[in-house]
Amino acid sequence: xxxxxxxxxxxxxxxxxxxxxxxxxxxxxxxxxxxxxxxxxxxxxxxxxxxxxxxxxxxxxxxxxxxxxxxxxxxxxxxxxxxxxxxxxxxxxxxxxxxxxxxxxxxxxxxxxxxxxxxxxxxxxxxxxxxxxxxxxxxxxxxxxxxxxxxxxxxxxxxxxxxxxxxxxxxxxxxxxxxxxxxxxxxxxxxxxxxxxxxxxxxxxxxxxxxxxxxxxxxxxxxxxxxxxxxxxxxxxxxxxxxxxxxxxxxxxxxxxxxxxxxxxxxxxxxxxxxxxxxxxxxxxxxxxxxxxxxxxxxxxxxxx
Length: 305
Ligand SMILES: O=P(O)(O)OC[C@H]1O[C@@H](O)[C@H](O)[C@@H](O)[C@@H]1O
What we know:
Layout: E1 3-7, E2 13-18, E3 24-28, E4 33-38, H1 50-54, E5 65-68, E6 90-91, E7 106-112, H2 115-120, E8 125-134, E9 137-146, E10 152-163, E11 170-173, E12 179-182, E13 188-191, E14 203-207, E15 213-218, E16 223-230, E17 234-239, H3 241-244, E18 259-273, E19 278-280, E20 282-289, H4 299-304
Antiparallel strand pairs: 1-2, 2-3, 3-4, 5-10, 6-7, 7-8, 8-9, 9-19, 9-20, 10-18, 11-15, 12-13, 12-14, 14-17, 15-16, 16-20, 17-18
The protein binds 6-O-phosphono-beta-D-glucopyranose (BG6).
6-O-phosphono-beta-D-glucopyranose binds next to β17.
């Protein structure tokens, strides 16, 4: 198997996944959080805050990939982004069959509701996450099963902290002409007018009914990240910029430049599950090394080709 469990000095468990092409990923059972994804050239593709690594090894790792369940953001009465990101997950001893088949570089992790969770959100669930590392790509398949005898609904998000050279140089393509809720303006609804999303200030938006493919083009890194998704119709785009970053604990003032969150979410229409029903989402991130600067890569080819 191309993964191993490593015990950190503080007692937390980390799973290191590798694949024959040379890329690696690291997953913490605390929070079910992907904390690193490196390509075959050992370049980190996810942002992770340096402060938490150096100063407070046990506190919030702001970065990587987070699972927001049973609520995304403040779209509901629960704690911000839900409680799953603060819970201890386990390796799933008996993952139910799921196409595509597991590879040697797949892990399945599981979070089951506890009595403590029940006091906060009175529903019984099983939240599964398959993480598969492939050559140049990382695939996440979340599943939620209703294991009680009444219907429940939830919102969901895969928050991707992407590592970018400088957010003000990034173009996000695939969201143009779509409607979005602007979190910074009391969630008012607007229509995107720009032909690509670029950044010159704080952005916090929920783009609605987005396409299955979004490209994040980083000229300086000569890299395009392509996000493909299914079952997660909305896309959140977030960057705190220079003022908001100052009030976020664990982030250095300058770190906002290296962060771009483009998340796969289900927010506008919550997911509803009948007893014993299961919902499944799918996200694939792939890094395309590009010579876009010299015009050899047409971003439209990445998106539509
Ligand atoms: O700091 P957190 O809880 O990880 O969230 C980060 C940000 O996530 C965004 O989605 C929110 O709209 C912001 O308000 C928030 O600051």
